[in-house]
Amino acid sequence: DQQVKQNSPSLSVQEGRISILNCDYTNSMFDYFLWYKKYPAEGPTFLISISSIKDKNEDGRFTVFLNKSAKHLSLHIVPSQPGDSAVYFCAASETGANNLFFGTGTRLTVIP
Amino acid sequence: KAGVTQTPRYLIKTRGQQVTLSCSPISGHRSVSWYQQTPGQGLQFLFEYFSETQRNKGNFPGRFSGRQFSNSRSEMNVSTLELGDSALYLCASSLQGSATTDTQYFGPGTRLTVL
Questions:
Q1: Which residues, other chains included, contact B36 with Cβ-Cβ below 8 Å and sequence gap of 6+?
Q2: How far is CA A50 from the centre of its chain?
Q3: In 3D, which of A26, A43, A25 has the Cα closest to residue B34?
Q4: How confident is the model at residue B98 (pLDDT cuts 50, 70, 90)?
Q5: Which of A99, A102, A104, A107 to mutate to test the interface with B (most CBs of B within 10 A)?
Q6: Torsions phi, psi of A82, nearest 5?
Q7: Please, are residues B70 and B2 in contact by the beta-carbon 8 Å criterion?
Q8: Beta carbons of B42 and A98 less than 8 Å apart
Q9: Nearest alpha carbon to residue B43 among A68, A3, A32, A73
Q10: What mean pLDDT, rounded, does chain B reach?
Q11: Which residues, listed in sequence order, are joined to residue A24 by a DSSP beta bridge?
């Protein structure tokens, strides 16, 4: 049973426009959420995170939004750049845990 | 500071064989976690080690095992390989292993193909 779901396997966006990647979770115990970015032949790298006490966290061009009632989070990238083309994984955990639950990933392609 | 390293990067085995994968964490990191990545399942947690002790284990059969050495290096072993074990195996290290306070740094992975 996949506790973290990314229902869009791929997304294409024009350079300069906004990219919105979505993620849903089922476990109400999750209180910490992260996004990782993965380039081919490399391991995932941490991008941005959000605690459940917040509904928004911003870091430069990247913003993560959390809707706890809907058990939904999204990652906004504005403006999108060709170098953002990668696979993005959503992950979740709960306080005290030492493992992450990952979604299946969304491949973002930013078209120049 | 050197990143997380994993060896070998690629491995081809046949069904029934066993395999050992190695992970060297970032210097100073005491926690090492292992994940399996497959196209349909994303990354799935295998186990986590801290100071040579397994603290947590995912939902994988007993054929999957691991250990951690005193220098924090970790190995993962899969016995009696099955075709479905073909995957990218990722190792991640962090200072203390907390998923909510420590950033996990991933290695490039070992691509295992079982024929």
A1: B43, B44, B46, B60, B87, B88, B89, B90
A2: 10
A3: A43
A4: confident
A5: A99
A6: -55, -35
A7: no
A8: no
A9: A3
A10: 94
A11: A5, A72
Interface A-B, measured as beta-carbon pairs within 8 A, has a size of 69
User: CA A20, CA B101: separation in Å to the nearest integer?
Assistant: 26
Collapsing DSSP to helix, strand or coil, B70 comes out as coil
- Min Cα–Cα distance to chain B from A2, Å: 8
Query: Of A87, A90, A91, nearest to A108 (Cα)?
Result: A87
Let me know: does B95 contact B102? Beta carbons within 8 Å. Answer: yes
Distances in whole angstroms, Cα of residue B8 to Cα of each of A55, B89, B113: 41, 11, 12
Eight-state DSSP code of residue B97: -
Residue A90, pLDDT score: 97
| Position A41 confidence tier, pLDDT thresholds 50, 70, 90 | confident
Of A4, A41, A98, the CB nearest to B55: A98
Whether A94 and chain B come into contact, CB under 8 Å, resolves to yes
Q: How far apart are CA B97 and CA A97, in angstroms?
A: 8
Please state the rounded mean pLDDT for residues B11-26: 97
Residues of A in contact with B41 (CB under 8 A): 2, 104
Q: Is B50 on the interface with A (CB under 8 A)?
A: yes
Question: Are the C-beta atoms of B5 and B72 separated by less than 8 Å?
Answer: no
In chain B, what is the straight-line distance between the N-terminal and C-terminal CA atoms, in Å? 37
Question: Do B66 and B46 form a contact (C-beta atoms < 8 A)?
Answer: yes
- Model confidence at A1: pLDDT above 80: no
